[in-house]
Amino acid sequence: xxxxxxxxxxxxxxxxxxxxxxxxxxxxxxxxxxxxxxxxxxxxxxxxxxxxxxxxxxxxxxxxxxxxxxxxxxxxxxxxxxxxxxxxxxxxxxxxxxxxxxxxxxxxxxxxxxxxxxxxxxxxxxxxxxxxxxxxxxxxxxxxxxxxxxxxxxxxxxxxxxxxxxxxxxxxxxxxxxxxxxxxxxxxxxxxxxxxxxxxxxxxxxxxxxxxxxxxxxxxxxxxxxxxxxxxxxxxxxxxxxxxxxxxxxxxxxxxxxxxxxxxxxxxxxxxxxxxxxxxxxxxxx
Length: 286
Prior knowledge:
The protein is built from five helices and 16 strands. It has helices at about 10-15, 105-115, 120, 225-245, 265-275, and strands at about 20, 30-35, 40-45, 50-55, 60, 60-65, 70, 90-100, 140, 150-155, 170-180, 180-185, 195-205, 210-220, 250, 285. The longest helix has 20 residues, at about 225-245. It is globular and about 55 Å long.
């Protein structure tokens, strides 16, 4: 039985939109219990693919976007961000995985932004020694939407995706449009003029536990859904123990509390951005 008590007191977190589940993975007519911001919720998918979200007997707002259910425990004054590429007709859009992690949402976002770990954690896939140097890249906060954008991020990758036939220097663009969501765009190995899109949407169950939902929006005519999921799940399985061994679990916003290098420019900007937006849930204040 779910509780109708909202335990979270962080107004910024309460008034944000949060992901709950991939729509296609919800069985029709079978209510599912999940947790968001220390609060138990119930989700139910109907025959017409509409989805309801409830807190006890109270209906909560629900949005279906990018193939996921989103809700809020507060009163958001904005709509969800967009990913225009998701609507392109030749893309393969699917949920690669929804994985529970014993770590805070900001820690998981920071790991997603980290270029420096590729050669050491994702060896022979997203990196390999001796190609460990991360060249300087540009990080800014956009005036129009206030998002973090990191451009000209380069990394040599032996197997950047299932369609890659050889290693090459891959260009990345990172985007943070939401305190607990991040998106990367990487050059497609078969068509270097276009980009694959991989996004991580973190569902903060508590301040130190999340469910990581991973969206793939890929340009790949040959691989099956199962093959694309398996590749991404392999990469994520390499990140999981690193993430869960982070100490502390919550992300410190004081930039001097943990060592950083030039390759950590995205992380430093993200921490300042969280502090500027007064995001406290899952962080340790500066």
